Amino acid sequence: MTLSEFDIIRRYFAAAGARRNDVAVGIGDDAAVVDVPRGRQLVLAMDTLVSGVHFPEETRAEDIGYKALAVNLSDFAAMGAEPAWATLALTAPRNDPAWLAAFAEGFSVLARDTGVQLIGGDTTRGPLTVTVQVQGFVPHGQAVLRSGARPGDVVYVSGSLGDAGLALRRWQQGWAPISIDEQYLAMRLNRPVPRLAEGCALRGLASAMIDVSDGLAADLGHILEASGVGATLALDALPLSPVFQRVCAAMGQVQGARLALSAGDDYELCFTVPAARQEQVERQFAAFDCGCRVIGVIEERAGLRVRQTDGSPLLFEHGGYDHFAAP
Amino acid sequence: MTLSEFDIIRRYFAAAGARRNDVAVGIGDDAAVVDVPRGRQLVLAMDTLVSGVHFPEETRAEDIGYKALAVNLSDFAAMGAEPAWATLALTAPRNDPAWLAAFAEGFSVLARDTGVQLIGGDTTRGPLTVTVQVQGFVPHGQAVLRSGARPGDVVYVSGSLGDAGLALRRWQQGWAPISIDEQYLAMRLNRPVPRLAEGCALRGLASAMIDVSDGLAADLGHILEASGVGATLALDALPLSPVFQRVCAAMGQVQGARLALSAGDDYELCFTVPAARQEQVERQFAAFDCGCRVIGVIEERAGLRVRQTDGSPLLFEHGGYDHFAAP
Fold first, then answer.
1. Chain B neighbours among A 275-304 (CB < 8 Å)?
2. B270 backbone dihedrals φ, ψ, rounded to 5°
3. What angle do CA A278, A309, A228 make, to 5 degrees?
4. Which residues of chain A have pLDDT under 70?
5. How far apart are CA B135 and CA A33, in angstroms?
6. Within the 52-71 window of chain B, which residues sit less than 8 Å (CB to CB) from chain A?
7. What is the pLDDT of residue A326?
8. What is the pLDDT of residue B93?
9. Beta strands per DSSP E along B126-254
10. How far does CA A184 lie from the centroid of its chain?
11. Chain B within 8 Å of A25 (Cβ-Cβ)?
12. What is the average pLDDT score of chain A?
């Protein structure tokens, strides 16, 4: 069976995601046309996943479809914004209907869950590369930026850190996840849950926010730089999942918290909160499964410092994943 | 010199294009935030260019940067929409500052000319692939769709057809454009002029519109399908540039008009107009350099028919470029 570009779009993507009544023109014309509600600002996030760079080549098509949308929704969470419409640029080496159907299904499951409609994009032939853009809204002037952290603010992180990074390391060692623990780690890598409700709840509470895609140290570093401040974290305070701790112990890896500090792909939220609003934040998070934890404090002195259990400073590499760093 | 992903964004892209005061948050946060004016609908177009597929691998970086934006602006023209903000997903195999600077300059020249600001995107390492999304506005309910053509409407095309396709064919034969004619053709391929003013002028006049990216026959075919109509074109009526005619003659290619019917990449506008509005359209186009020409008529009977000089039907392949067709 040979499907044309147009057949592919019609068959797999035209119905992907939610149905929204603010879409005037969806897939099938030169451009999409939608209605932005009054009093809202338009928010746009775009991220690319490249095969072999952002995910192992053997990753399942449905996981790629899911994750390509999830990483953008995570950016929305980090702005306190609500997603509405997605566009998809899919470059694929072959016209493989089974692969395309699985990819579209993975994308669609998350899109439906989050009320997002796929309204346009482009399908082209070439090395596997997926770019998704998500567009949506935030009430006027209420987007949570990276630049608002102030000395004295408390640093929080949602959920737990290091699971995805641990999965990726094991994958790179020729891993085939079998046990329940391993499958949990693989899910954390392949199916990150964008913290959308949590992000929206933090509007008006968090002074700065970012999602942890490149690693906590690197991403918190962006907040520090944009805000012109520094921070000290307690290594012991980093939230580690029970699975992460078990697998690290089984590997003889005693420095789990150090991996959690630098590993990317967790898509948790890292945010800063003025002390006066801490109680409100913790009340809000009581409603969320993922929870949140205080991991440090914002300080005037630039730079990121990490204290170990005995109070001594941890020396670590600041950088997260840099796509153009020498391999 | 080694630049990080963040250096690249700061150095080459943060200042690309126009400065707009409706941009609340541009490059440098998790997402961009902009203001959509009241009474306007939001329009979004996304297109990908893959090296070796959409442009020859030896294409200059500045031409790739220009064209990646131009093909999206052409979609805007075909909707009668006004562009405002662009996002860019650039996947490149190396961190080559000279290449990146040239790419950004080509992109920026066209962005400034058209009042477009680059507000976000992603830079990743991988095989050269460029996805651009342009977002902008159209007055409520006034987007020109593909679906409005009615029997009796006249079919127009702007500018001339075939120049870009002829350049691409010559390029594939190991071409190095030297003469003024050759350079003109290369410009038509590498630096297509999006017909933005023309497209906006056709709001309320054209009943349907598309831009000619895959070839006239294929793209007009999309209008016919979306509108549930057919058309007959006169092969002799296709507008051919003097350069195109000279080069075809020099090549001993007597069937220039047939190439003009099927060749893509011209980014002219193909549109349909009710007879009662023809005079208005031609008055409007008197102000535009590119001009426009009647090439056929919309009919009730489905399908595209092309008449040759002697009135006999031309048999031709309907399809334009299909990215997933067997090579």
1. none
2. -110, 125
3. 50
4. 1-3, 6, 317-327
5. 10
6. 52-54
7. 40
8. 92
9. 129-139, 154-158, 208-211, 230-234
10. 17
11. yes
12. 92
Q: Chain A residue closest to B90 (CA)?
A: A48
pLDDT band at B228 (very low <50, low <70, confident <90, very high): very high
Task: Find out whether B146 and B210 touch, Cβ atoms under 8 Å.
Answer: yes
Residue B133 has pLDDT above 80, yes or no: yes
Where is B117: in which H helix or E strand? strand B117-125
Contact call for A146 and B211, based on CB within 8 A: no
* pLDDT per residue as tens digits for the range B160-175: 999 999 998 888 887 7
CA B280 from chain centre, in angstroms, equals 24
What pLDDT score does B316 carry? 73
Q: How many A-B residue pairs are in contact by the CB < 8 A criterion?
A: 222
Query: Which chain B residues are Cβ-neighbours of A121 within 8 angstroms?
Result: 46
Q: Which of A29, A76, A219 to mutate to test the interface with B (most CBs of B within 10 A)?
A: A29
Write down the residue that tokens 């002028």 correspond to: B201
Write out the two tokens for A282.
């913790």
Instruction: Report whether pLDDT(B196) > 70.
Output: yes
Nearest CA to A68 among A97, A85, A90, A99?
A90
Query: What is the residue type of A213?
Result: S
Encoded amino acid at B239, one letter: P
* Residue B44 identity: L
- Enumerate residues 75 to 134 of chain A having a beta carbon within 8 A of any beta carbon in chain B: 75-76, 78-79, 81, 85, 87-89, 91, 95, 119-127, 129, 131, 133
Q: What local confidence, expressed as pLDDT, does residue B326 receive?
A: 40
Chain B residues with CB inside 8 Å of A37's CB?
Answer: none
